[in-house]
Amino acid sequence: VREGLLEAGYPGAGEMVIWETGEGLVADQTASVDYKRSKAKTLTDHIVGYEETHPNAPVHILGFSAGTAEAIFGLEELPEEIKVDNVVLLGASISQDYDLTEALRRIDGKLYVYTSTHDEMLGFAMKFTGTTDRKHHVPGAGISGFVLPEGASEETRQLYDEKVVTIPWNKEFEEDGDEGHHFDNVNMPFIRDHVAPLFMGGTVPSLDQG
Q1: Where would I find the H helices in 117-176?
Q2: CA gap 120, 17 in Å, rounded
Q3: Among 171, 179, 196, 204, which is least packed, fewest CB within 10 Å?
Q4: In this structure, what are the phi and psi dihedrals at residue 87, rounded to the nearest 5 degrees?
């Protein structure tokens, strides 16, 4: 990820927020929501601290796999007056019906969700582990995107409509080594050509084409 951002000429600083259990991917996925929320506070604190020392500087968040819950939980804990610019979720194992309302209120730009029906980690393994926000029998958002939560308010519907952008896998991604599998879109070429531009004022080419 770091190499991809640098190759794209991303001009900002970057920081990896460590939250994992240290016991492997399954343990990270199945760790409790309470554990994940406690670790997400680190992200929140870093953003608040950065805003204090660099007021009005852009802030972007990239979450991958179980770390997509950390991104969302961290956003939810931000003071209402602090906003981030854009958020990108890759291989999202947070449930597709998770209520994003609080998180979206703290995003000025867009929440981009890359999806793939070829992702066997989400499509098969997660049937046994559950989602990272600890739901079973509910698909992860990384398969086909988020859906409105049951009983969504008018505000929630508007936030989803204005801010959530779902980007399904397509064969053009193969040029950057992404065949739709779980770890493909965190390789250097994909980050360089698809993620970094979103953090640098670009847009999604497929959406530009209608």
Answers
A1: 120, 126-129, 141-144, 154-163
A2: 26
A3: 171
A4: -130, 135
Per DSSP, the three-state class of 71 is helix
Please measure the distance between the N-terminal and C-terminal CA atoms of the chain and give it in whole angstroms: 28
**pTM of the entire predicted model:** 0.94
| Distances in whole angstroms, Cα of residue 76 to Cα of each of 14, 47, 54, 72, 80 | 21, 12, 21, 6, 9
Instruction: Give the DSSP per-residue string, 79-106.
Output: -TT--BSEEEEES--SBTT---HHHHTT
**22: number of Cβ within 10 Å:** 7
Query: For residue 206, which of 170, 163, 162 has the smallest C-alpha distance?
Result: 170
Express each pLDDT in 9-42 by its tens digit. 999 889 999 999 999 999 999 999 999 999 999 9
- Which of 7, 17, 89 is CA-nearest to residue 49? 17
Residue whose pair of structure tokens reads 């001009």 in the numeric block: 11
Of residues 75, 87, 86, 19, the one with CA closest to residue 44: 75
pLDDT 10s digits, 73-109: 999 999 999 999 999 999 999 999 999 999 999 999 9
Asked if 195 contacts 88 with a C-beta cutoff of 8 angstroms, the reply is yes
